[in-house]
Please model this.
Amino acid sequence: MSKIPLIMDVDTGSDDAVALILAHLSGQYDLLGVTTVFGNAGVEETTRHTLQTLELLRSPVPVYSGCHEPLARRLYDEGNPIGPGENRRVAADGSAIGFHEVFDLPRPQQKPEEKNAITFLIETLRTAPQPVTIIATGALTNLACAWLLAPEAFANIDRLIIMGGGIALSNKTAAAEGNFFRDPEAARMILECGADLTLLTLDATHSAALNRADLERIRAIGSPLSDFTVHVAETRMAAYRELQPLNGELAVLHDPACVLFCLNKNLAAQSRRYRATVSIDHGETAGALIADPRAAAYDQGNLLAVTQIDKDRFLSDLISLLKKAP
Ligand code: RIB
Ligand code: CA
Model:
């Protein structure tokens, strides 16, 4: 079977790193390049983390650094891309509690390419002999810039699979999910760009939250990559406990769901088409997904939103891919 030509647009990022690992291990993607964007950290850090993850995989895939701030807004907290403070806190003992830590991995040997992410995206879409799939797991700023400069190139996108938004859930503010909140104008532009679009919503990713027993199954694989995945999940579990309590000791790994769904749409236990956009308000609803479920009544909507994942399949796919690693 021929491989899926793929670009990943990431803000690595704990869960982005696991998504990169799974894409690599699957052997089913022809990863043409990875583009980086600000988000879980500044773009220098998300780029370094991306290079570190690829070096962990001994993957020569090129990395293209992208946007360092949103299209039309200021970064938060005087240049901090993370956003409102509830998502990171310093504990009483001085340690940091957060969903994404600085990676404890060797300094990368490779540098990002000279070419920037936007140029790479446009040139690749214009010249690729087969339509390209894009998995986007950060703010959609790079894609929006590419769209502004070369909308015709988007005709060569096969599928655009995005981790973003929530129907009944939010995580960055009371109304918004993080990737959409960080650049609402970009998210709105891309949701309305006409590509074949699937959203892996928070509702979906939370439905596949991992518990302690799941982590023990992953730990039992006993490889550097399974250990790294468990470490990421445990960091996130601690962050959820303190910052965003879930119903039990759980860790959500959002971004890997895009990689697994792209390989097998049966990962989705529930999905439906919506006519959807993103709020570009500057108030409490900034970045919120506005999804009108009446799409089927008057048209077919502009995207498919996955709202529930088959958790058993998610875990077994994750484990079987991690088992492929030496
Ligand atoms: O809201 C979750 C998303 O925000 C994930 O992609 C995470 O990595 C962060 O980018
Ligand atoms: Ca991400």
Notes: The radius of gyration is 18 Å.
